[in-house]
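Replying to the earlier thread about multi-chain prediction with a worked example.

Input:
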Amino acid sequence: MTAAITASHLTKSFGTTKALDRLDLEVATGEVHGFLGPNGSGKSTTIRILLGLLHPDAGAATLLGGDPWRDAAGLHRRLAYVPGDVNLWPSLSGGEVIDLLGRLRGGLDERRRKSLLDRFDLDPRKKGRAYSKGNRQKVALVAALASDVELLILDEPTAGLDPLMESVFRDCIQEERPLGRTVLLSSHILTEVEHLCDRVTIIKDGHAVETGTLKELRHLTRTHVEAELTGPVPADLVTLIGVHDAVVAGRKLTCEVDTAHLGGLLGRLTAVGVSTLLSAPPTLEELFLRHYATAAAPREGLA
Amino acid sequence: MSRLTTPGDTSLRGSVEGATAVVSSGTLTGLWPMIRLALRRDRVWWPAWIALISVQVVATAGAFESLFPTVQSRQGLGPTMGRNTSLRAMYGPPFDLTSAGGFTAWRMGGFAAVFVALMSLLAVIRHTRAEEEAGRLELLRSGVVSRHAPLAAALIVTIGANVLLAVIVTVGLISENVPGAGAVALGLGFLGCGIVFAGVSAVTAQISENARPARGLAAAVLGLAFLLRAVGDSTESATWMSWLSPIGWTQQTRPFAHERWWVLLIPLVVGTALIVLGASLEGRRDFGSGLRPSPLGPERATSALSTAAGLAWRLQRGSLLAWTIGVAIFAGAIGSVANGVLDIFKGNPQLEEIFRRIGGGQSLIDAFFAAVLPVMATVATIHSVQAMLRLRSEETETRVEQVLGTAVTRTRLLGSHLAHAVASPPILMTAAGLSAGGAYAVSAHDVSKVWAVLGGALVLVPAMWIFTGLTMALIGMAPEQSVLAWGALIACGVLGQLGPILQLPEKVLQISPFANVPKLPGHELELLPLAILTLIAVLLTALGANGFRRRDIG
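Result:
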């Protein structure tokens, strides 16, 4: 069993809006998998299908080797879920909710419960209605992280947390790795994804547009190059394969180059002679924006 | 720079004063958009409340002629009512029962005032603390909406609605040919009560961080007002207590019985004072917080809170307890006045006839209970529907997905709430039957009816389950339309009340499940209709449960 989650060609419509359009997703056992996409791209819908809350119109999914719709309750013993928008019961205290959710999953690790409460600086005696958004999220996170489960499904878990708590969260996820737990982390926070995730899937309009390790994905993106040459810029550089949006001003060249073709361009530049060279490797943000922005959006704004 | 720090610099002082002026003129900035928002949100809410209250009041005046057609029957009313302390406690002191207006003022003056108060206090909390707690007000306050604008808008809309209600009641009563002065006095009496309770909730909204306790506290003030009036009106030596109650003020205006206009000044002054107090308390607290911090809960869950059923019990137990107590009190009050009501009917063949038609019993007391028990059952069904709808609200407020994200199956989840909805009718009707029968036994010195009344209460349970089943069916198969369960219950309630008086055909009346149970006490117990009703309820529930297991959640 190598894949904790597989989804193939998941399709789901709500009325006339198509939330998922042949979505593919594979999360290997033991990895931390980033699930990225703009608002409304279908991340939460995918997660809800994986939890058996929604039934897909077409396509298939497996979760921990089982059918997420048919075997929901049995599978849920082995996973913990933190929704993006945590609503607590107004009259229950945070401590009660943590205990309840843990017991409904089949038990809590007492030691972890206590240490997580400390680390997240959470007062478990407050009532659900009195917590802020961030604190409600902490309640659900403590309940999930203190459970003894194989898989964590986290839907934008840090959206309401302050930077300090966000870093506590990162530490907690890093600690999950040696335990062999699988994590599906839907997020908007790129540094978080960069820090934590082994592989990512980028989803847009209900379809997975990119998936792989960050290294692989970087390879698919473009590097920004600004070079000042000792001689005039050869005219054919602009039309070189892999070079985009080139602007030539005298001896100065500014362009984007497909990372796979970076070597070729550099070879040509050094042949002329380089006086200054500035090369910016693609950040995840660029990668992300390239997929987030609609196809019609101009590239200049992204450099 | 040095110029700015010079003490007494006139230009600086001018600018500071200017700023202060801007701030003070801005304390109600955004008032108009807030009013429009409140009206837009409540475009069904207000007409429904106003219609509910005014129709009852005007219809009472309209029914007087047919209920008491002869001068003799009217003159008999005063002495009987005047003597009966239970009736005085329930409705208030009768000042003149010989005219349609005077009868309406007695029968509805205090009763409708309670509804007016409820409408006003719910409206103010709904637009102030409830919005603040939900975080929506923060969004508005960050725009061009100042600190006091939401409260001011809520009060203006609420008092405006009360004015409208007063006008409708007044015009409606005058159209029933009662004296104009009395109609105006009764309308203004309701308005006064509305203003006072708008003020009460303007204050309670500031105290707690949450809407529930704010609402509860305001409702407790209303309960106290009713209690003070009930004790004052029924106890010779404590009549002064009625004067402490806003509901009492409505009655002490004495509409249609030599109106005492000056009494209307009391609610006006008290209401204004409460509003000023509320606004000043609001000025003293931070946005989102209360004057009193919310209490802390336990650090750990008890072992009872380990399953879906344990969670449902925790969520439902408070409301079940409150409803059981409420129904028992209500039924006890009805049971204790039963004897007095019978006195009125004796010698009034029309009323007797109406009661026999509704209740269908042999003896008048049996007919009375057979007539009022379905009303209690209809009201008590609200709890069962509410308990069932909890499953839906847990879903719409996305808490269900956290529970279903654990090892809880859908069947267990729905079963945990269904159990409460199904258990509610027998529990509440047992309380109603014992309380009504017991209270009658005490007041009439006649214990023979206790078991018969309890039986009459319990035969209604299968009819109540129809609504439980219908609610489950809607949740399972048409979740967006779940509120239709309320529509069905209200329709059947109205049909049960007005149908017999309007002499609608039997076929129409039997649309209501409550019309299909044997009319007990006083008739044979037939098991077949009860079995059929139960079967339908089971089928509806099964359909709903099946739908809930198969449909998308959320």
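Chain A touches chain B at residues 48, 51-55, 72-74, 76-77, 79-81, 83, 85-101, 103-106, 123-127, 129-130, 140, 153 (CB under 8 Å).

Feel free to reuse this layout for your own posts.
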